[in-house]
Amino acid sequence: MIPLIYGNTNTFLLGERPCGKTGGGFLLIDTDWAGTLLAFYRSLGKAGAEVRDIRFVLATHFHPDHIGLIPDLMKQGVRLVLTETQKDAVHASDGIFAKDPRSRRVWEPIRESEALILPFGESRAFLGELGLRGEIVPTPSHSPDSVSILMDDGDCFAGDLERRTYLSAYGEDAPVRRDWETILSHRPKPRRIHYAHGPAETLP
């Protein structure tokens, strides 16, 4: 796992550099806002990687601070992965980018027709093709399209899911509690929760 922080959103590379014609390749989890491409390149370079090393990009959800570079990366051959709950959310942020003076000159709507549609039940096999062991699960309390990536090595990438330390503010039937039940029921149990904003959390 390689963290890439070049704006306000924590993004992550999972996997290994490509080996030969078909093996390996990174999965990028989230991007930052539209217009941060040069900063992304610098962060990627510091990590010793290049865009051509990235095979897929997956957004934890389709808010503007998580998807801003997806069209740029798709132009360079990175394939977008859409889970079955994300197909209708792809263009949710188009209007926000269109009104924002920083991004409206560079933002282009995502071409979802070129994406890989991934059912949750096939996520373990998909990650396995990249040499990764884990699964992608729906965690829709933040937004209906939100997902988390649970790795068997104990790392969990939870996007904007409310932190576990704040659960006492929610009722027993709150959707965020159900999301945490989903995460904590994974085996092996998660040990480190990586959020899109702020530091990671180590579970007891």
Can you describe this structure in just a few lines?
With 204 residues, this protein is of the alpha/beta class.
List keywords for this structure.
204 residues, six-stranded mixed β-sheet, 6 helices, globular, five-stranded mixed β-sheet, alpha/beta
Explain this structure to me?
The structure is a single chain. The protein is of the alpha/beta class and 204 residues long. 21% of the residues lie in helices and 27% in strands. It is built from six helices and eleven strands. The protein has helices at residues 37-46, 64-67, 70-75, 94-99, 123-129, 175-184; strands spanning 2-5, 10-19, 23-29, 54-58, 79-83, 116-118, 134-138, 147-151, 155-159, 192-195, 201-202. The strands form two sheets. It has a six-stranded mixed beta sheet, sandwiched between helices. Strand 9, helix 6 (175-184) and strand 10 (192-195) form a beta-alpha-beta unit. The chain is globular, with a radius of gyration of 16 Å. It starts with a strand and ends with a strand. 39% of the residues are buried. The mean pLDDT is 95.
Mean pLDDT: 95
How many DSSP-defined strands? 11
- Give the H and E element order: EEEHEHHEHEHEEEHEE
- Main β-sheet: number of strands, strand sense, barrel status? 6 strands, mixed
State Rg: 16 Å
Find the structural class using helix and strand composition.
alpha/beta
Cross-sheet strand order for the largest sheet: 1-2-3-4-5-6
Q: How large a portion of the residues is in β-strands, by DSSP E?
A: 25-35%
Span between termini: 21 Å
Treating each run of at least 4 consecutive H or I residues as one helix, how many helices? 6
Sequence stretches where pLDDT stays below 50 over 5 or more residues: none
User: What share of residues is helical?
Assistant: 10-25%
Write down the overall geometry.
globular
